[in-house]
Amino acid sequence: MVTSTGADGTMIGHFDVERARRETPGVQSVIHLNNAGSALPPAPVLGAVIDHLRLEAALGGYEAADTAREAVEHTYDAVAALLGCRPDEIAVVENATRAWDMAFYAMRFQPGDRILTARAEYASNVIAFLQVARRTGAVVEVIPDDEFGQVSVDALERMLDERVRLVAITHVPTQGGLVNPAAAIGSVTRAAGVPYLLDACQSVGQFPVRVDEIGCDMLSATGRKFLRGPRATGFLYVRREIIEQLEPPFLDLHAAEWTAPDRYEIRPDARRFENWETNYATKIGLSVAVDYALGWGLEAIQHRTTTLAESLRERLVGISGVTVHDQGAQRCAIVTFTKEGFSATDVSTRLREVGINTSVTSVESARFDFEARGLTEMVRVSPHYYNTHGELDRLCALIEGRSRP
Ligand SMILES: Cc1ncc(COP(=O)(O)O)c(C=O)c1O
């Protein structure tokens, strides 16, 4: 195999799949193609979480946190290295939605303010827009797609005016392989001085996502998906210059200090978006997952996962009755399809029965997009670098009906 070197110095043409599988206990028991749901964790992540739980059991929860202080603090350095920002621009919270909410609900809107979003936007984000629009009189507008089905940057540019208070985009949607042009959007919002919130829940961990290159002001992501971290971990990036302009929707004695009976002071760093009690075991696990991903190199991961996904798309389009639905000029490791005569739920359930994990993505999770495309549900297959072409063969044989469980 040809090897070449990525910008981060790692080899991108060769991927040590055997090592990746050796270090992933779950591949022994399942063909896991639901990494957009929650990936199989690598052994070091699993070990770190279990070790800390053992430490808590042995020492006491607070004492264990104290003992592991360095490992806990390292989470901020690791996430900052991953995103190309400073550790004090990172908040670690319990999931991507909470991270996104802490940024979004910190913003102030007035009647007539415009919130611009994408057609592919995730349901929870749109529900929040609608709630805030109802409360404040702000309006939510969807930026049209271009001919590839991704956000039209030209259309966005034309829509920008002094009433636009926020551009909030989902980088990679839950419902397909589309990668929205995050950096091109960033150039336009920066030039216009409009805050830009990027939902990078599905993109972080599957390819390089660097805020210094994208130019977003806020970014939310999760640990459990392509980063392969523990469940119930997430993080928020907020650009240093705007942290102190954003008052978190909730405060506690971690986010702020009670300085006098009638006064408090909010922390100056991004940890103002966190709260005091947290799961230390999974927080450490998240930092191990980030280091682990950086160890492989995000370009190398991208090369491997997109190769698997493109090869899967090619095979699927050759199966009679199957339609692949992924859009975008650039596509990633989320593959969506439907099969004539079968519901997506049926297909995914039958695969699960024979030890292949996929998932179903449905209209409730991205209504603007599903309705525009006349779809209600699709099977979602999301390979990671530890999956093999052999696993995809088995999947396709079952979808085609060539192979019996
Ligand atoms: C695009 C997108 N944004 C946000 C979320 C929510 O992430 P979490 O469940 O970590 O809150 C998801 C979850 O699937 C997602 O796909």
Describe the structure in brief:
This protein has 405 residues and is of the alpha/beta class. Helix content is 40%, strand content 16%. The strands form four sheets. A seven-stranded mixed sheet has the order 2-8-7-6-5-3-4, with helices on both faces.
Describe the fold and architecture.
This protein has 405 residues and is of the alpha/beta class. Helix content is 40%, strand content 16%. The chain has 15 helices and 15 strands. It has helices at 17-22, 43-59, 61-67, 69-83, 96-104, 123-136, 153-159, 182-192, 211-214, 240-243, 280-296, 298-317, 344-353, 367-373, 389-400; strands at 31-32, 90-93, 114-118, 139-143, 164-170, 196-199, 218-222, 234-238, 256-260, 263-266, 322-324, 335-339, 356-357, 359-362, 377-381. The strands form four sheets. A seven-stranded mixed beta sheet has the order 2-8-7-6-5-3-4, sandwiched between helices. A four-stranded antiparallel beta sheet has the order 11-12-15-14. Strands 1-13 form a two-stranded parallel ribbon. Helix 9 links the parallel strand 6 (196-199) and strand 7 (218-222). The protein is globular and about 70 Å long. The model has no long low-confidence stretch (mean pLDDT 96). The structure holds pyridoxal-5'-phosphate (PLP). Residues 95-97, 122, 124, 170, 173-174, 199, 201-202, 222, 234 line the site of pyridoxal-5'-phosphate.
Number of strands: 15
Low-confidence stretches: none
Strand-pairing-aware structural class: alpha/beta
> Kindly, what is the distance between the CA atoms of the first and last residues, rounded to a whole number of angstroms?
33 Å
- Tell me roughly what share of residues is in helical segments: 25-40%
The arrangement of helices and strands along the chain is HEHHHEHEHEHEHEHEEHEEHHEEHEEHEH
